[in-house]
Recover the amino acids of this structure.
């Protein structure tokens, strides 16, 4: 069983080398998401504020929001690497993060060697890696390239390798950041099938992306973050319809309807 | 700093193993040691990566160390007016053990910083990053120490039973490196000046410690060596391989430092474990 529960999670990231006045000006000019504050002598970025949500078996959650909205931070909290500065996170199940395609990869090692390194980093034993190897070879379709150092790979090939290792059957909760976007259409079809199989074994997927068609296809729920705050967490079409017009008021309408309501946004 | 209620994070299972709440005392080190399959694999890979596409590979370390000690040894034996048959093995072993200690400490300063991508993405015990560095340097040590064998043969003065004590000696050195490595890895992640300070201190230590000169050269000022913990650490491996046993003082200092230091490292890790990732 896989389960995620976040209760009033906040993450403040200290920035030690920032000159407060100038970075605030810089970031405000850029109008990116996270809000800044000051703690003692250094700047802090309030990357997440009072984020609460739950996910259960079979949930495929798409994270949407503009740059700096807190999507990656939330994924890092779920992966256990960012301890929240306030609130509680409860994650049940073996987490397999794929926030970058190069996690633990050694550019000079061969594909096969990297499968072992990345698999073991994700908590697989050497034997489990060996058991999964045929499945990984088949999925990547890299053939003899697996005997070459991965620095000779294109970014799409690297993605196939990373994705195949991240989605071995031992994972319960899969966390994916933007990176999945560099794949071609053929990869995407295969990835979709593989993720569906994963989720059908009652697991959880959380994927952050700016590609709405991809989220619509992969996910059944969407979580809209803005400035580190959850705007909406609901059925995927409903959230994306509102998100694509940046209008929380649309959340109250059923998907497909155009009628606008004045009711306050709620999830 | 943080009120008690804010600390209740339960990540049931991430990559490596089952994790309790982050701040259980000594838990990071305990989980890290249990994850030995991971850090031994990563350490081996670090060595392999360094010498990929090189024909002699890691044996370059052996060759360069061999040339260094033969060149320096024959010169300094003359300067210090010592028989080369006793000076050369002394210098060789001292240099190799020193190299193990100093390179481990230097690399541990970057143990977290150089792996920030991984630390921000996958939760494994922090001690694993330090153990990986020390393991890689142990492999280097095993490659370089074999040059003592031809030196033994050349001077027809082989090891005796005392040499076996070098093994527990090496274990105690490594235990000390674990805590020193954790402390400097943490400090250097937060305060980037630490690695520069460490490097400067190590540069002075190599000359201030009996490595290139015999301890007898101190004469009445022998206390200069006795108050130097680095001297005691080196003695744990060097003395047995030269056919004598390290003094009780050396054992007491090294073991005492290991116990106290490991406790210090566990206290430190528990305090800062939740913040390290935000310092990267």
């Amino acid at each position: 069983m896989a389960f995620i529960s976040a209760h009033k999670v906040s993450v403040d990231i200290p920035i030690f080398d920032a000159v407060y006045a100038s970075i605030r000006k810089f970031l405000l000019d850029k109008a990116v998401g996270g809000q800044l504050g000051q703690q003692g002598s250094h700047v802090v970025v309030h990357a997440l504020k009072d984020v609460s949500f739950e996910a259960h078996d079979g949930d495929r959650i798409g994270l949407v929001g503009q740059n700096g909205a807190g999507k990656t931070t939330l994924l890092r909290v779920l992966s256990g690497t960012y301890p929240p500065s306030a609130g509680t996170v409860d994650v049940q199940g073996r987490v397999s993060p794929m926030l970058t395609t190069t996690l633990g990869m050694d550019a000079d090692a061969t594909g096969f060697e990297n499968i072992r390194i990345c698999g073991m980093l994700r908590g697989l034993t050497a034997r489990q890696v060996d058991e999964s190897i045929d499945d990984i070879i088949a999925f990547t379709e890299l053939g003899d390239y697996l005997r070459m150092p991965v620095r000779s790979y294109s970014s799409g090939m690297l993605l196939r390798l990373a994705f195949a290792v991240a989605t071995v059957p031992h994972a319960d909760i899969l966390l994916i950041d933007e990176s999945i976007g560099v794949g071609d259409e053929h990869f995407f079809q295969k990835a979709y099938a593989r993720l569906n199989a994963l989720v059908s074994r009652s697991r959880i997927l959380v994927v952050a992306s700016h590609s709405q068609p991809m989220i619509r296809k992969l996910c059944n729920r969407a979580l809209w973050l803005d400035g580190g705050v959850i705007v909406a967490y609901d059925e995927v079409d409903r959230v994306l319809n509102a998100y694509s017009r940046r209008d929380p008021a649309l959340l109250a309408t059923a998907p497909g309807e155009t009628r606008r309501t004045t009711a306050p946004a709620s999830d | 700093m943080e009120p008690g209620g804010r600390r209740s994070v339960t990540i049931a299972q991430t990559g490596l193993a089952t994790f309790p709440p982050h701040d259980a005392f000594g838990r990071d080190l305990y989980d890290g040691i249990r994850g030995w399959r991971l850090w031994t694999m990563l350490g081996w890979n670090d060595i392999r990566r360094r010498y990929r596409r090189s024909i002699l590979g890691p044996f370059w370390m052996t060759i360069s160390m061999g040339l260094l000690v033969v060149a320096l040894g024959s010169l300094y034996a003359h300067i210090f007016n010592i028989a080369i048959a006793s000076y050369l093995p002394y210098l060789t072993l001292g240099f190799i053990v020193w190299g193990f200690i100093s390179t481990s400490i230097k690399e541990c300063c970057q143990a977290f910083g150089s792996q920030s991508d991984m630390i921000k993405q996958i939760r494994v015990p922090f001690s694993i990053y330090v153990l990986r560095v020390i393991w890689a340097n142990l492999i280097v040590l095993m490659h370089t120490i074999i040059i003592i064998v031809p030196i033994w043969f050349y001077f027809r003065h082989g090891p005796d039973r005392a040499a076996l004590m070098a093994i527990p000696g090496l274990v105690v050195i490594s235990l000390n490196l674990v805590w020193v490595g954790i402390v400097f890895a943490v400090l250097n992640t937060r305060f980037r000046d630490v690695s520069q300070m460490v490097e400067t201190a190590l540069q002075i230590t190599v000359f201030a410690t009996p490595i290139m000169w015999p301890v007898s050269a101190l004469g009445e000022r022998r206390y200069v060596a006795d108050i130097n913990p680095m001297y005691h650490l080196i003695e744990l491996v060097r003395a047995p391989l030269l056919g004598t046993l390290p003094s009780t003082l050396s054992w007491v200092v090294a073991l005492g430092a290991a116990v106290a230091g490991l406790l210090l490292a566990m206290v430190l890790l528990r305090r800062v474990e939740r913040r390290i990732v935000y310092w990267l």
About this structure: Confidence is low (pLDDT under 50) at residues 1-21 of chain B. Strands of chain B lie at 10-14.
